[in-house]
Amino acid sequence: MVDLKGQYRKIKKEIDDSITEVMESSAFINGPAVKKFQANLEKYLGVKHVIPCANGTDALQIALMSLNLKPGDEVITVGFTFVATVEVVALLGLKLKLADVNPGTFNLDTNRLEQAITAHTKAIVPVHLFGQAADMEKIMKIADKHNLYVIEDNAQAIGAEYTFDDGTVKKLGTIGNIGCTSFFPSKNLGAYGDGGALYTNDDKLAEKIRQIANHGSKIKYFHDETGVNSRLDSLQAAILNVKLKYLDNYIKARQKVAGYYDNAFKNCDKIQIPERNKKSTHVFHQYTVKVKDIDRNGLKDYLNKNKIPAMIYYPHPLHLQKAYEYLGYKKGDFPVTEKLTEIVLSLPMHTELDEEQLKYITEKVLEYAGKQ
Ligand SMILES: *Cc1c(COP(=O)(O)O)cnc(C)c1O
Questions:
Q1: Atom of ligand 1 lying closest to residue 59 CA
Q2: Count of alpha carbons within 13 Å of 104, Cβ hemisphere only?
């Protein structure tokens, strides 16, 4: 699904130099590499504050902690996402409410969102799944109307841009109150270990987030609130400083792969290419097709047998997981999410795929679809 080694080889010298610099300085915790990365990412995103942290899950947790919510306050998100999005809500004792997704874009269905809002709702966590935006224009309007916070789960869409009706263009994650991202190695901007960040244009929230991520402390040994310890490692920051320079090129490489897939499958109605949100660029964290009238698991097995990795993101709706049984949801509550878990398949998507590999992958997919 990814080729991290191939990608590393191309920038090996720069990465190795950057790592050596950290080793030589021994500034392993919050060293200059972290400050540099913070500044570089602020500039790239066009956002006032970036607060690096240990991973994307922490970013989401700290974001929610910064809003002064009380137990029982409701947070709305989707059940068609990586578990981290819902996990942090539950962990903080907040009331998790789910809404269904759009069958085309896989993102939060804004019609369902309004229906899920109650007097106790305090925040919405849209996920920009697979690399393109949820319908942020509508989500922000709904949030304004009901006075809700918006925390964008941007773990899969760093670098993607959203164009509002009035022509304003913003990077995803900088539209709501707080954006959260992950630098997990396979993410679009991946470190060589764990990492994450929060971003915001709100000075007060930024200060609060920094404090929470640092044991609830602004001044050493003075703790104004209960916080956590969540830092981006200096070595990871040094790696990310190099990789951030290439992010736009990496995105272009992914879009090129997507273009190849689109073209290969355009005349095959059994393989439905991912629908695009017209207001968003797509950075293709995943290229996820929907199958029609063919056996999805059979296709996956066929590809795997032919040494092509293909994965199901996500195979089980979160509202039907054991951990979330207590929410009281049942089968049939989110029909789109449930259906998608049965028909989606993500194909290999990364920066190092060449034409020969793409030809082989698409031929095998079409071969299976043709036999059915
Ligand atoms: C990867 C991911 C996360 C969590 O990031 P980690 O760095 O692995 O903690 C959260 N949400 C989504 C949608 C993700 O894809």
A1: 9
A2: 6
Q: How many residues make up the chain in this entry?
A: 372
What is the helix (H) or strand (E) element at residue 138, kind and residue range?
helix 136-146
Please give the distance, rounded to the nearest whole angstrom, from the Cα atom of residue 180 to the centre of ligand 1.
9
Residue 50 host element (H or E): strand 49-53
Q: Over the stretch 154-191, which tens digit does the pLDDT of each residue have?
A: 999 999 999 999 999 999 999 999 999 999 999 999 99
> What are the backbone dihedrals phi and psi of residue 126, each rounded to the nearest 5 degrees, phi first?
-75, 145
pTM above 0.90, yes or no: yes
| 287, amino acid identity | Y
Ligand 1: residues within 6 Å at CB? 55-57, 81-82, 84-85, 127, 153, 155-156, 182, 184, 194, 196
pLDDT tens figures, 263-291: 999 999 999 999 999 999 999 999 999 99
Q: Within 13 Å and on the Cβ side, how many CA atoms surround 166?
A: 3
CA 91 from chain centre, in angstroms, equals 19
- 3-state DSSP call for residue 222? coil
Residue of 2, 57, 286 best suited for mutating to test ligand 1, as the one with most atoms within 8 Å of CB: 57
Domains of the chain with bracketed CATH: 4-100+107-244 (3.40.640.10), 247-371 (3.90.1150.10)
C-alpha 293 to ligand 1 mean position (Å):
32
- What H or E segment, with its residue span, contains residue 206? helix 203-213
